[in-house]
Each structure stands twice: as C-alpha cells, then as structure tokens.
Amino acid sequence: VKILELLLYLDAVTVPEDDDIRPYFYRTQAEKVKSIRQFLCEHISENYTQKALSQKFDIPMTAMKSCFRATYGEAIGTWLACYRMSLAAEMLLREKETGIAEIGSRVGYDNAGKFTEAIKRMMKLTPSEYRRERGLKYEK
Fold first, then answer.
1. First-to-last C-alpha distance (Å) of the chain
2. Rounded distance, CA 36 to CA 83, Å?
3. Where are any strands of DSSP class E within the chain?
4. Which among 65, 69, 76, 94 is placed 20 to 30 Å from 40, CA to CA?
C-alpha cells in the first residue's frame, strides 16, 4: 500500500522542464559580461573576436557566451549587429552631410559594400534609400 501511495505521489509531482530552470552565473561573470557589453559600445568601430574578448576580460568562452545570452537575451554577435545597425540608422538620419562609407566605418564596417549589405538585410533598404525615405518622417 505504501509503495502504491508513493507511486501515486510521484506521478502527481511535476518535474520542471529544462526551460524553467534559469542558469546560475557567478557575480564576477555577470559583471564581466556587463563590462564586455560596455566595452563593445565604446569601441563600436573596432572588431574583436569572441576569443579576444574572453581573454581580455578573463572569462571562459562558454561562460561568456551563455551569460551574455542569459543577460541580454541574444548572442553576442546578434546583439552587436543589431546595436551597430540601430546606431548606423540613427547616424544616417541625423548626420545627413556624413557619407555612407564614413558612417559604416564608424560602426565597424571596413567595407562600404558590406555595410550596405548589412543595412539592406536588416532594414530592407539600402543606406541611401533609408536616409531618403525615413529622413522625411524623421524631420517632421
């Protein structure tokens, strides 16, 4: 009878799914990931590999990647690409006199063609089209 009760109890108990378990990170890891994000924001025109960031901030690569994703909701590369594009979009609208290649360079693209391709992929418009079409709405 006791075994049956135990089996019924265990059947009623739900085990949390892996999605429900939040990963644990040491405070030092979380602080280093915040420092990495701040560093990337301050050095947006420069390109760093994840390995270089891991070494520079003395955090294991796997911990850095998983902590960054848990803290900011996306991978480092994805976050950086979105940040660069939003910054570039703002510059395209605010700095009308600045050339597109110059803006691309300031947000970390060495090649104007790659910058144009990245903007087009994200914004569905070339930088010139974005500046022309969104600039009218921005001025109003």
1. 77
2. 14
3. none
4. 94
Which tokens sit at 71?
Answer: 């803290």
Stated length of the chain? 140
Whether this model's pTM surpasses 0.85: no
Q: Is the pLDDT of residue 14 over 90?
A: no
pLDDT, tens digit, for every residue of 41-96?
Answer: 999 999 999 999 999 999 999 999 999 999 999 999 999 999 999 999 999 999 98
- To which H or E segment does residue 89 belong? helix 76-94
Task: Provide the token pair at 3.
Answer: 């075994």
Whole-number CA gyration radius for the chain: 23
Residue 140: both structure tokens together: 């109003």
Per-residue tokens: 98: 């600045």
Question: Please, how many CA atoms are within 13 Å of residue 52, restricted to the half-sphere of its CB?
Answer: 6
